[in-house]
Structure formats: C-alpha cells, structure tokens
Amino acid sequence: MNLSNLKPARGSVRNRKRIARGQGSGKGGTSTRGHKGGQSRSGFHYKAGFEGGQMPLQRRVPKYGFHNISRVEYRGINLDVIQQLSEKHNLTSIDTHVLVSHGLASRRELVKILGRGELKTKLEVKAHAFSGSAKSAIEALGGEAVVVKR
Question: Which residues lie below 8 Å from residue 123, measured CB to CB, with a gap of 6+?
Fold first, then answer.
C-alpha cells in the first residue's frame, strides 16, 4: 500500500454535483435558487408558521378567553390515594419521590395534596402545596404536612 492507491472507505463519499461553480458545471448561474425573491438570497428564512402567503392557521383559528402565563399547575393527589399507598407499601413518610416512584406523579410536576377521602394513619407528608382540609386532616391524626420548595 502506498499513497498512490489510497481510496476513501466505501459509502463515505457521495458523488454530488457542486453548485455555484460556473456554467460548465451544470449548476451555475442561479445555482438552483431560481430567479429573484427571498429564497434566492442568502440569509433568508421563513417566519415560524408561514404558509406561503395563505392565511396561517394561527390567524385562522378564533381566539377567546384569557391565558395566564404565570399560572402554576399542580398534580392533585387526594388523601384516600395516600391512605391506600401507605397501607399497601407500609409507609410512614410520603414525599414527592415516593409518589413519582409509584406512578402517581411525574418527576417535574408540582404536587398538591387534596382533602377527598379519609386518613386513618399518622403520616408525614411532604408536597409542594396542601389544601386546607387536607392539612387539617393530616395534622388531626398527629401527622405532619411539610411544604417543600419547587
């Protein structure tokens, strides 16, 4: 083997026409960009949602109401669900990691404990928020409702 018979690996080099290399190349002149207009110019890009001049979907669909961008969404979990979880897995402390590992919330969701159902055992519950009835029900049995930071 010497430098005169080296070749690139099979499939590593594509044989494609080089554009903008003169008229003799067959891809000179406008270099496959057509004549005039934004698309023929360097640096051009469509705006997001542009549909070729047709009225974009975003403007066709009617809009109404108010969307609060500061709204905080919580995954609501009721006391009866927590009671079942503690009985089934013999838990005395329930936090967001336990809820995620048992499929009741996803890792990035904020968890709020709600007051539906009845709690029968003393539990330490850690969550991002509590409803008033849930907090009072947990503390009535001597348990602890701990608010964790987001």
Answer: 82, 86, 91, 92, 93, 94, 138, 141, 143, 144
Which amino acid makes up residue 26?
G
Do 129 and 147 touch, CB atoms closer than 8 A?
A: yes
- How, if at all, do strands 93-94 and 124-127 pair? parallel
**Under 8 Å between Cβ of 126 and 96:** yes
- Give Cα 93 to chain centroid, integer Å: 29
Distance CA 53, CA 75 (A): 42
Predicted TM-score (pTM) of the model is 0.60
- Cβ atoms < 10 Å from Cβ of 131: 16
Q: How far apart are CA 51 and CA 46, in angstroms?
A: 9
What are the pLDDT tens digits along the chain (150 aa)? Answer: 899 999 999 989 988 888 999 999 889 999 999 999 999 999 999 999 999 999 999 999 999 999 999 999 999 999 999 999 999 999 999 999 999 999 999 999 999 999 999 999 999 999 999 999 999 999 999 999 999 997
